[in-house]
Amino acid sequence: MPLLLASSPSPALRLPLRARLKVLASAEVGASGRAGAGAGVGGGGFPAFLPREVERIRDGPAIHLAKRIERVPVQTGFSKSPIPSSCVRPLKQQQSGDPVVLLHGFDSSCLEWRYTYPLLEDAGLEAWAVDVLGWGFSNLETRPPGDVASKREHLYQFWRSYIRRPMVLVGPSLGAAVAIDFTVNYPEAVSKLIFLSASVYAEGTRDMSRVPKFVPYAGVSLLKSLPLRLFATLLAFHKIPGGPAGFFDWVQIGRLHCLLPWWEDATVDFMLNGGYNVLNQINQVKQKCLIIWGEEDGIISNKQAYRLHQELPDAVLRQIGQCGHIPHVEKPREVTKHVLDFLRTESERAEKAEKAKQGSSLPSTVGTL
After folding, report:
1. Most buried residue among 48, 224, 320, 341 by CB atoms closer than 10 A?
2. CB distance 293 to 326 below 8 Å
3. 367 domain-assigned
4. pLDDT at 13
5. What is the pTM of this model?
6. Could you give the 3-state DSSP secondary structure of residue 43?
7. For residue 168, what is the enclosing H or E element?
8. Does residue 369 belong to any structural domain of this protein?
9. Mean pLDDT to the nearest integer, 108-121
10. Which of 18-22, 98-102, 137-141, 251-255 has the lowest mean pLDDT?
11. DSSP SS3 for 12
């Protein structure tokens, strides 16, 4: 679930829903998953490295996108061997136009994009959905570090190995902080930025250097629990289609990556290292930005949309009515329209600027008779 929080949740969060969610919680089967790093196809045509619980998902777009997830090797300076890193690659890479790279929120995965990704692809964009190091479905058996610097380098090496062109970087919720941190450090890799319900004003996790390790592990264990995930899903969305069955399916999709054996270690490491704090980096972003926000966001007030709009040097703001914290899941068509309009406008502006530049550089043809 792409929560804005970068710290361990309070145990009190699960209390209000215990009675209401008892029936749904009883349907959970033990969280066992396939730990292997390998390629290949598992049951139901899914990649073999996904937890076997993926076979219980009923959401058609989630099933389709899950079957396209693959692992590609990414070599970093902090790992002796390449990290098998999970992503969804475009069916065809283009030679022109900026690729669109989709990140995800805190403690989530590329499956966030199950509804919007195919719309972007159908519109002709070269779209990548990339799992941030420490979350998603990468093979972290070697337990690479989960701090911000490592996440940043991993994304850069992924970009350097597979994309190699300036990209439109898309960050929802805490993914917006990931995108800002990356862009300020590697501005040459990013042409434009798109934020959705951006979590960029949190100051990371509190100092946990003296906290016994069992404390963050207890918090992380709660973060994975079905009652908390049910509660978080209720907070994150304005309306979920499909009734209780659809609601429970969305919860299962959102917590699928938590069933991998290294998820707890990676999340605790992220917490102990302080999380993201990009407050002083926002005004360093020079790229053109699009800000999208759900008007009914129950996790981050949309008042922060106006604050971010004012603080970014070059940004446009679009709000979506009757929409919660995760617009690309709840209102994929509206999000796609705003993205396409933004990219089209910027492309037309760039073309006009280039023509004006060429016109001003032409030698004068006026002579004296």
Report:
1. 320
2. no
3. no
4. 33
5. 0.85
6. helix
7. strand 167-172
8. no
9. 98
10. 18-22
11. helix
Sign of the alpha-carbon torsion through 158, 144, 236, 46? positive
The answer to whether 87 and 76 have CB atoms below 8 angstroms apart is: no
Say which residue the tokens 């749904």 belong to: 24
Which of 105, 192, 189 lies closest to 153 in space, CA to CA?
189
Matching residue, tokens 């799992």: 131
Give first-to-last CA distance, the chain, whole Å: 75
Q: Is residue 315 in some structural domain? A: yes
SS3 track for 52-100: HHHHHCCCHHHHHHHHHCEEEEECCCCCCCCEEEEEECCCCCCCCCCCE
DSSP secondary structure letters along 218-262: HHHHHHHSHHHHHHHHHHH-S--TTHHHHHHHHHHHHTGGGGSTT
pLDDT (tens digit per residue) in 43-58: 689 999 999 999 999 9
Rounded CA gap, 129 and 113, in Å?
Answer: 7
177 is a domain residue: yes
Assess contact for 138 and 35: CB atoms under 8 A: no
The per-residue pLDDT for range 344-369, each reduced to its tens digit, is 988 777 777 767 777 666 565 544 43
Of all residues in the chain, what percent are helix, strand and coil, respectively (each to 5)? 45, 15, 40
Amino acid identity for residue 200 in this structure:
V
The pLDDT of residue 208 is 66
* CATH number for 104: 3.40.50.1820
Using one digit for the tens of pLDDT, what is the confidence trace for 144-171?
999 999 999 999 999 999 999 999 999 9
Q: How many domains does the chain have?
A: 1
* Tally of helices (H runs) and strands (E runs) in the chain: 12, 8
Instruction: Count the neighbouring beta carbons within 10 Å of the beta carbon of residue 283.
Output: 11
Closest-CA residue to 136 (of 177, 187, 102, 98): 102
User: Per-residue pLDDT tens for 186-208?
Assistant: 999 999 999 999 999 998 776 66
Give the per-residue pLDDT at 40: 73
Residue carrying structure tokens 């951006």: 198
* 8 Å CB contact between 180 and 280: no
Give me the torsion for CA of 187, 188, 194, 200, rounded to 10°: -20
Q: pLDDT tens for residues 304-319?
A: 999 999 999 999 999 9
- Catalytic residue ranges: 173, 297, 325
Q: Which structural domain, as residue segments, surrounds residue 121?
A: 11-356
